[in-house]
Design goal:
- Helices cover 61% and strands 9% of the residues.
- The chain is mainly α and 196 residues long.
- The strands form two sheets. The protein has a three-stranded mixed β-sheet.
- Helix 2 runs parallel beside helix 7 and helix 4 packs parallel to helix 5.
Length: 196
């Protein structure tokens, strides 16, 4: 009997380890090391890295009841908030690649949306890190709606989509706490690392 309990425990630990290892393959399990020098692009990239890390852990392990939770009738659910963050991650990525944003993104299942959001943030950060100050000065957020095109400088991306994503990630953290599944205490947002 004790042997079977031991075998079940080992199997459970292997499965848990495999699942945990799969999550580590997504970007922002931890924040990448910071660059040795400060540049405008590196600072902007680090802001996105901080967002990616917070998003990773705010959305890690969300249950159906967490995604459906909303604190009041006039608010979004966690799922709707995550969809909004996903849409803004597309805007952030598109602007760093010089692509205009048109229409609304396609709806994805939660896990696919989570992964794509993290990949979008990683892609934007990677691009920003390579830009000179002059290149960064030329980044524009471009929106195309029907026959109208609107452009904004990168400054508006900082106080717009990037700051807005941080705001909404905080909401997801608050909502998951209210739905009985609090944010893990196994990470440090200061260091961007998992506490071992």
């Amino acid at each position: 009997m004790g042997y079977m309990i031991g075998v079940r425990f080992v199997v459970l630990m292997l499965i848990s380890g495999a699942m945990f290892g799969q999550d580590k393959k997504l970007p922002y399990y931890e924040i990448p090391d910071y660059p040795e020098t400060y540049t405008a692009g590196a600072v902007a990239a680090r802001m996105i890295d901080g967002l990616g890390f917070r998003y990773y852990w705010a959305t890690d392990g969300l249950r159906k009841e967490d995604l459906a939770y909303k604190p009041g009738n006039d608010t979004r659910t966690s799922q709707q908030t995550i969809e909004h963050i996903y849409g803004m991650s597309i805007i952030i990525l598109n602007s760093t690649k010089g692509i205009s944003t048109e229409g609304q993104p396609a709806t994805l299942p939660f896990e696919a949306m989570r992964e794509q959001t993290l990949l979008n943030l990683q892609g934007a950060s990677t691009t920003l890190r390579t830009l000179s100050d002059a290149d960064l000065n030329n980044i524009k957020m471009v929106f195309k709606r029907a026959d109208k095109t609107t452009e904004f400088p990168f400054w508006n991306e900082i106080n717009g989509p990037i700051a807005d994503c941080l705001w909404h990630v905080g909401q997801v953290v608050s909502f998951r706490r209210a739905s009985g599944n609090p944010f893990t205490d196994k990470v440090s947002v200061l260091t961007g690392k998992v506490i071992r």
